[in-house]
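Handout for the seminar on molecular recognition.
Each group receives one record of this type.
Step one: identify the two inputs.
Step two: read the structure output and locate the region that could contact L-homoserine.
Step three: write two sentences on what you found, then compare them with the reference statements printed after the record.
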Amino acid sequence: MINVSILGFGTVGSGVYQIINENNKELEASTGRQIRVKSILDNRKSVNPDIAAILAEKFEDIENDEEVSVVVETIGGTEAAYDFVKRALLKGKNVVTSNKALVEMYGSELLRIAKEKNVAFLFEASVGGGIPLIRTIGDAFAGEVIKEIDGILNGTTNYILTCMTEEGQSFEEALHKAQELGYAERTPEADIEGYDTGRKIAILSSLACKKEVKFSDIYTEGISKIEKVDLEYAKQMSMAIKLCGSATVDDNGDIAAYVCPMMLDRDNPLYMVKGVFNAILLEGNMLGRTMLYGSGAGKLPTASAVVSDILSIIKLGNNRLPIEWSEERAKVLPMDKTSHRYFIRFKDVDDKHITRCRRAFADSEVIRLEGLDEFAILTGYIREKDFNLVSESLNDIIKFIRVR
Ligand code: HSE
């Protein structure tokens, strides 16, 4: 019998409980072991009557319960979650979490403790929800040098941008709809300002370069300034705007990682990812490109990823290929060392101004939308540092969006 304790009985925690109960036979068939949820810790007063009998009074009861070998953390945040996870690992218990903030902030330390204690600290559900992404990096890419990761890692913002594109909604209208449908996180800023994507790309970057990449080192720009008219320009150019989290690892192991809205060409595989779906392109030095696509959020997809980690612990213990990174801090290159094409909108449609702006950038073209008192330029590839220098010398820039 494998005894599991769940910390936090919110959306994901209750989903884990549901899967362990409803799919119990399948779980037993695939591991050869019976699995049960022995205890649940949740500080909310109104608890589900089904779980009243197994509610723990305090974390110490779980920490000191020698029968519990797997602790699932779905509390969220980095306070109680960090304290409980660390203590569970120090007690020699395996831990599975869906908490990206915890993994991003304390992952290096928790991975080290898990190794010292010869237990597992797994976090498949922390990035990409139900998409088997972290395991793919750990297993299928174990013999590869990961050169690039590029992904739509946040369902809420992808949903908002899809509504703006397909239904002509304003940013505010689309955000409101996303909130009504329960997609947005507790605070919409985490989604719309790119922080959620930033934490996720920090975790993926750490896995790719095997060193610690901190969210605070990652350039992060959200979608709150994207307007309907930007999407109209994108449509005219047969492009889509997506919030992308990207990381490239150079030959020295240094990393360029950033989060920002990107205009994507129609031939980019991420172009067709719509609604709340997530997709991630992984590029290995031998394998080339692979894309993973699926449900990046939601109760059961996320809980399913948690359960898959539990099964991996039961079946493989520490005979898995390692999913880890060291405590050494990776060197994250500043944004001005990256290169992109740029879409730039300018006020004023004076012919001389248009010519001057177009000539300022090599290989650029002018884009006009009928009836607008403005124009736009699509540049060729240029280093961000040079782009900043040139654009400083030009008047009347409304905004720019990077293009891939
Ligand atoms: N708010 C996140 C999203 C949930 O919209 O993708 C999963 O981290």
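Reference statements: The mean pLDDT is 95. The pocket of L-homoserine is lined by residues 129, 154-156, 183, 185, 191, 196, 296-297 (CB under 6 Å).
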